[in-house]
Amino acid sequence: MLILNRRRFLQVGSLASAAAMMPKFLKAFEKGQLVPPGNKVLVVIQLSGGNDGLNTVIPYRNDIYYKMRPALGIKREAALSLTDEMGLHPSLTGLKGLYDDGAMGILNNVGYPNPDRSHFRSMDIWHSASNAQDYWSTGWIGRYLDAQCKGCDKPTQALEIDDTLSLAMKGEAAKGLAFVDPNRLYNTSNEAYFRDLMRTHEQAHDEHHNVDYLYKTMAETISSASYIQQQFKTYRSSESYPNSALGKNMKVIAELIMSDINTKVYYVSHGSFDTHVGQQGQQERLFKQLDEAVSVFVNDLKKNNRFQDVVVMTFSEFGRRVGQNASGGTDHGTANNMFLIGGGLQRKGLLNEGPDLTNLSEGDLQYKVDFKSVYATLLNKWLTADDKDILKQQYAYLDFI
Amino acid sequence: MALVSDKLQMQHLAWRAGFGEPLPLILSWTDQRRKQTVHHVLNGPKKQSLIPVEVISATELPDYKKVKDMSAEERKQVRKMNTQGVKELNLAWLQTMISSEHPLREKMALFWHGHFACRTQNVIYNQQLLQVVRENALGNFGDLLSAVSKTPAMLQFLNNQQNRKQHPNENFAREVMELFTMGRGNYTEQDVKEAARAFTGWGFDGDGQFVFRERVHDDGEKTVLGKTGRFNGDDMLKILLEHRQTARYITGKIYRYFVDDVQLDEDRLATLSDKFYQSGYDIAGLMKEIFMSDWFYDTQHVGSRIKPPVELLVGMRRAIPMEFEREETMLLFEGLLGQVLFYPPNVAGWPGGRSWIDSSSLMFRLRLPQVILYSQELNARPKEITPEMGEGARYKMTLELNESLRKLYARRVNARINWQPYLDAFKDIPRERLADEIAGALLMKNANANKSLLDKYADASSRENYIKTVTIDVMSTPEYQLC
What we know:
Chain A is α/β, with parallel strands linked by helices. Chain A is 39% helix and 13% strand. In chain A, strands 1, 5, 6, 7, 8, 9, 10, 11 and 12 form a 9-stranded mixed β-sheet that branches. Among the domains of chain B are: 6-48 and 262-297, no CATH class; 58-242, no CATH class; 420-481. In chain B, the strands form 3 sheets. A two-stranded antiparallel ribbon of chain B has the order 1-2. In chain B, a hairpin with a 2-residue loop joins strand 3 and strand 4.
């Protein structure tokens, strides 16, 4: 009861007063391993460059797979067996463990109509959630933020761990925040001069003018940076995260998730998976980093009793062609698989049938699940948002949540 | 309507028709008639021939028809030349913008560079397209459209090499209608199909020259936008130009870029686009019409526009001459601010306006003057650039580009700043008026950077240091992001 009340307090936003009113023993309790469940969180891991889905979830009973990939095909013995038909890339041992524990869902054949094989165009389509023929300048998480942050003073509901902000995070009115290190963000945005500028500007406020828009963004950045840094201070992970960029970024995310911050969506990128040449070594290395970072992250969440409140989603702008190329790699393809990881999944394991290698379109896989359905499901069922408003269209829901 | 002061009018013109001008020039403009200044802005110093931005001559790169026969080592060389070439082209064009005596041409070219957005890794193709855009920037829109449509860069980017009678590819036709001329909603899918047939056979050869391949051209009758005939690509462009919607679309886009992207005045737009149409698409004529109008100098437009990153960077370097130890640093800045020349985000170009601004890009903009002028470390890296169609070897070029950007990151930005001309511009200003004069010269709309605030942070140990520190602080305001 007490915990519920505290949660409600935080949701209304009066953080300082809630903390002040809390008895001391509860504050200690808060920092321990028993952080109460509540705030549902989505973590998006972007596999940049077009990850080769066929060597990620391997159809190892399929002759066509081996015929088209005589050198690159991963042998059945090497793959981590999921079912009689499918296995996981040998580097993904941690994810295999999650799969066995019922904490991972694999969605195959995800894509969209009229697929584009250009990195930046296809990435745009995934980020904006537009149809292939439309050019939108806002992203799906940004539009979620628009709805979440109407009239709010700090758009911290969506954070990207990077130096620059992705299109996915840009809404019409609100835009997410990007930073690598919460302390550095705080230090640069809180220079005395900037604060003074803010103070002298505070009188006029008319967002129709760009100058006020700039000051509003600046004010939001300064107050968000303080808020994030305040929260960030409250929890230090004791897990040893790998020293890769992704490892460090996942650690920042975990530490924020374990605080009382109001963030609902975290965004991080990993890559590059653009494996035209020498795919084997490159994908192996990147997968190892992914697997290590995600495994430690999940352990961290579990120990703090937060795993059931978090869903991790991976995606890539496209998969790769079925046939290998002449340089030990693969070229740009179409449909791909996605991982969904979390302690609170409704359905897990292989969520649908594997790729159909007999029905290719010009050597490429054909999509069966529109990625916007995945977004719709996460927005509606996980983040309880109005997916139709955000995606500007009603997409069918999936049942993994 | 309320016009701003004469001096501010000229500052406004200098920024909208270019990248800002130093104070002495602004003052001399203030003393002459608007007509005279606009004439100067439109035509440049005198009728001088256009100096191409060139980093490579066509003969330096090997024949692309022979690439297939090359050894791995030779291919690597070609790739390196392209990667390096596109980088150098970017920097060379920036340098031209910085030093140009005819900034409107470069500004207009920058506008067209976004309008005719294109990505190709081939340095020669990029260089050709840039030349076409700069040559015709203030000329006739029909000529510009036709010349751009026939560049290998665009034909390749929009897949018209694959547009053949037997297998039409609609990409080129669709973008010509949607992005280059009429805008969406003014034609049907059937029009696109028919237009694509008209463009069949347009391609380019191994020397990077436009060719009309008659064998793959569909010579049959087409019906498009209500007209029927055995149209070819040239006919198709003519039909698009005959449509008033094309004039309206282009005028609207120019208005949003050069005048105001928040508040549109429909009557004004209608008048402008009618005149543009009647002039047969004379771009300089349209710009003159805008720059001569009183409404252009109205308070509501002055200082209302968010500078695109390239304009911000060029503007700073025009205001205070500086040489970078590593000129490639500019590529890093472009990346962090969200506008890398020759890498538009998609075929629709940079969306512009408020989309330039998010918390990271804004904080970076505000820190930029300190980073450059105090030689600070940057400690931020841009997102990786992805190749547009990395089939095979091309993607390696982008890897190399990203690698070279990575090496720049976390290094101190070293620039040799030539303050003297800037300091000289203020030599007659009494000390107590300096802060306000500097802010007045650098900002179009100043609500905030007042003397008392600037004094608080200024280094008053010498007049020179005072001017420098006040300048850096004025450049570090949100207001400086606007023009």
